[in-house]
Amino acid sequence: MMTNRNLFEHLPTLAQDPNQFETLFSASDFRGRLIQAIREATKRIYLVALYLEDDEAGREVLTELYEAKQRNPGLEIHVCVDWHRAQRGLIGAQASETNAALYTKFAKKYQHCIPVYGVPVRGREVFGVLHLKGFVVDDTVIYSGASLNNIYLHFNDRYRFDRYHVIHNAQLAQTMVNFVDQEIIAHPAVNDLTCAQKPSTKEIKSDIRQLRASLAKSSYQFYSQPIPATHVAVTPLVGVGKKRNRLNQSINQLIAMAQDEVFICTPYFNFPRSVAKEVKRAIKRGVKVSIVVGDKTANDFYISPEEEFKTIGGLPYLYERNLRQFAKANEAHIAARNLSIHLWKHDDNSFHLKGVWVDKRYMLLTGNNLNPRAWKLDLENAILIQDHYAHLTEQFEQERENILQHTQLICTYKQLEKEEHYPDAVQKLMRKITRVKADRVLKQIL
């Protein structure tokens, strides 16, 4: 039987010069680099994100794109966002004009227009969204789990912490562009949101089903390159749905092959069953496992007890309950330091990091939340890095230190708040969810 390590050795790879790979350490640096790249672009800009928000940062990005297009009409610019998310407001917010309305306004203001494609991964947002990551500017890939709005780009006082990498690699950039062009933009289900006349979701229902089916069979297409000792290997991966999902399989294999250490970041503690199983096996075979997760107050759905409670505000408490149960079940491993749980909290900022590091040789850059929703519903991608000659070790160690600087080490599950100490509205919601056994269903879609 082929081992997990051999499976990775047989993955197609692209050669990456480590000197052309850069890690950024803050949301403000990410914003600055993205704006700079847009201004300096000469041939193409492809931005793919869950959403581009109608706020100061979103309008700044859109303005930069349009100004670049007016300066150079031949510049190829494509923006892809989730179809459903673009046509509704923020969860829990007052009714307002949608992001799609902003795109239409910009298209009317300028001579040379930029298409903003709405990508419907499923007929309803709750059952799957465009969660693909990676901005391509000329021959550079700027990869992050962040979307485009004030908090992700640290436009005002608060930021949402993510991972940010700048990879100059012409083959990788072309591979990612080809996928967007051929598998997404070319499909009849995908429509330009800047147009005043757009079809309804109901009208493209059949096209959406066909898009999902074709995406489930799709993959990044490229010719594998030999990797000299001076380079690292990179492999872009994509997946949607639970059947034959190469990205999911690779994440499981990554943890299964660990011999010394696994370092995992996830914003929402709700591992898919297969990931939970591989983490448990890794701990049992003596692998040192570290998990970094956001404190409930650093969750993007958290509502302060002083504010009016909305149902969506119960999510951070559900995730904390999951984490407390996990920590309690693994108390002996925590005490033996085989398992380390780090809780991230920095002022009023929020936590959105994802990723897996294994044995200082394998690193996964991804927007995948490592939860059942990512596993079964959303369109996800990642870039797997194999670094067998320690070219990027120092850079990734720096990144890990940067992540850990605002964390607290959990030494016992008792450090995590009990349900009985939650605000009354949260306790009431939790009891209701448990009573109707909705928590099992919620775990699959959150």
What can you see in these coordinates?
- The chain has 446 residues and is α+β, with helices and mostly antiparallel strands.
- 35% of the residues lie in helices and 20% in strands.
- It has 14 helices and 19 strands.
- The strands form three sheets. It has a nine-stranded mixed β-sheet.
- Helix 2 (27-40) runs parallel beside helix 3 (56-71) and helix 7 (246-256) packs parallel to helix 8.
- It is globular, with a radius of gyration of 21 Å.
Which labels suit this protein?
446 residues, alpha+beta, 14 helices
- Flag low-confidence runs: none
First-last Cα distance: 35 Å
Helix content: 25-40%
* Major β-sheet profile: 9 strands, mixed
Structural class: alpha+beta
Number of helical runs?
Answer: 14
Specify the overall morphology.
Answer: globular
Radius of gyration: 21 Å
Percent of sequence in beta strands = 15-25%
Number of strands: 19
- Average pLDDT metric: 94
Strand arrangement across the biggest beta sheet: 1-11-18-17-16-12-13-14-19
